[in-house]
Amino acid sequence: MPPQFDQLRVVLVGTRNPLNIGAAARAMSNFGFLRLRVVNPYEVAFREARSAVGASPVLANAEEFASVAEAAADCSLVVGTTAIGNRDPQHPVRRLDEAARLIRKRLASSRVALLFGSEKRGLSNEDLSHCHWLLRIPTREKHRSMNLGQAVAVCVYELARGAKSAAQRGEPPAANAGDLDRVTTVLLEALRASGYFKPKIDATAEGKIRRLVHRLNLSSSDTEICLGMLRQILWKLRSGVES
């Protein structure tokens, strides 16, 4: 198994069917991706899947989280999956073949979270706000959506298929999602203090700022510089001291 495979975190959000959880874990094991995370799964389904006879180590070692933000906090790239349908995505949407090349490149140096939504509704707008961009499996127009287990299998197969060409050297490590959330939080505070935003902003505006920060593709060292600048600006705004 190539070492970069250990950098991928497959994240199932709000999954309700134990068969789908099991099928996703089996597909991951088939292609050498062993890090499964679940966010607010239907508890009965999750327990049933984990206790199934012959359940793979992928499922037995799955990590459980309360939110997408927590599940992706240590990842430098967060990619959501979507069938699009009638939705108007606010992110770039890439076909699986292009997306797989970009994900493999990032896996050579840092962790990547690949998000799959619930069987019924997919990923919510709140879930998507934590993503850098979205991935679409090129199914036919009249039948866009796939079974969850099948979707995971197709994605991890495509990632494994071109793994030998994924080497990446000389680039600084990218900021993980936890670092980007810290930048987003301080930036929002500064925007409120400056009067750009009202004291209470709605989730739509906050989501736009989070997506903007993700699009900047900051390195881990960049985030520390940004946090330092933003904190200084915020201190000046709150203290009323002119520069």
Helix content: 40-55%
Order of strands side by side in the largest beta sheet? Answer: 3-2-1-6-4-7-5
Bulk shape: globular
Give the helix/strand class.
alpha/beta
Order of helices and strands: EHEHHEHEEHEHEHHHH
Low-confidence stretches: 165-169
Overall pLDDT, averaged? Answer: 87
Number of helices: 10
How would a textbook summarize the main sheet? 7 strands, parallel
End-to-end distance, in Å? 55 Å
Beta-strand proportion: 5-15%
Radius of gyration: 19 Å
Beta strands, count: 7
Structure description:
The protein is α/β, with parallel strands linked by helices and 243 residues long. The protein has ten helices and seven strands. It has helices spanning 18-31, 43-50, 57-60, 68-71, 96-107, 125-128, 148-161, 177-194, 203-215, 220-239, and strands at 8-13, 36-39, 63-65, 77-81, 93-95, 112-116, 133-136. It has a seven-stranded parallel sheet with strand order 3-2-1-6-4-7-5. The radius of gyration is 19 Å and the shape is globular. Residues 165-169 have low confidence and may be disordered.
Which short descriptors sum up this protein?
243 residues; alpha/beta; 7-stranded parallel sheet; 10 helices; 46% helix
Concise account of the structure shown:
The protein has about 240 residues and is α/β, with parallel strands linked by helices. It is about 45% helix and about 10% strand.
